[in-house]
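Attaching the record inline, Q. Sequence:
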Amino acid sequence: MKLLQIMRPKHWTKNVFVFAALVFGRQMTVPLAVGRAVGAFICFCLAASAIYILNDIIDRGTDSLHPEKCKRPIAAGTVGVNSAVVVSVLCAAAAIVGPFVLSRNFLNVILAYIVLMVLYSLLFKRIMILDCIVISIGFCLRAIAGAVVLDVFISPWLIICTFALCLFLAFSKRRGEIILLGENSESFRQTLAGYTPELLAHMLDVTSGLAVVCFLLYAMDDQTLRIFGTNNLVYTTPLVMYCIFRFSLLIQQGTYSDPLVLIYKDLPFQIGSVLWILSCIGIIYADKLGFGGM
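Structure, as predicted:
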């Protein structure tokens, strides 16, 4: 159970970005495509777990003093470093082997993700702003992986929207950490010494606005019209704005210190997100659902 815990299964939800290409590539009704997307999702879960374990091994000293992270098995000493290394290597190996079955091009994306995240754990997480940018690129690689494994087109606007949205989430996490740790924040994460609540509030405003604008540009793009036969995705913008603004409100109020906890626990945000997803599916698959007039 402890070995599974160090893989952080609760964080596997971050890999749902892999399914973006399945939805927006109009492949949800193709069983083979669904299977390949699920396979890519599993590979990214394993790759991400390998990095989580590596990161926990590196940070076990400071994590043991953290009010929340001290409960992690490696920091608490309930899982030894040697055992953790073995699990990390096995997860990485499985993540690399999987693409040989799915797509050789997918292998390049997985390798790029693993290399980038290893560099993040060793170096980039100590560099202010770049730490959040690298995390966001990692999420973009998930979205790109979904398109590669399905061999479908994915709009550059959608990739940029994903990048901006994930930057928003990364800065939200930094804001939450400052609220949780207070004056001792820089003792647990070096980059927190440079972030201030005012600066992060500005960054949240900029990245959330950029995400909304990029989504609008994607929804109104001629390529989107050719693929879906409609630009009606633009009418889901109120739901997008509600979810982003509520997320920002709760983080800056200090209601939640961890964005993942917010996603799991805030019912209004969950309802807004589900309604947006269902609206997108209804618009994209209108012809297949018998709503050709949409």
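Residues 155-294 form one domain. The chain has a mean pLDDT of 87.

More tomorrow.
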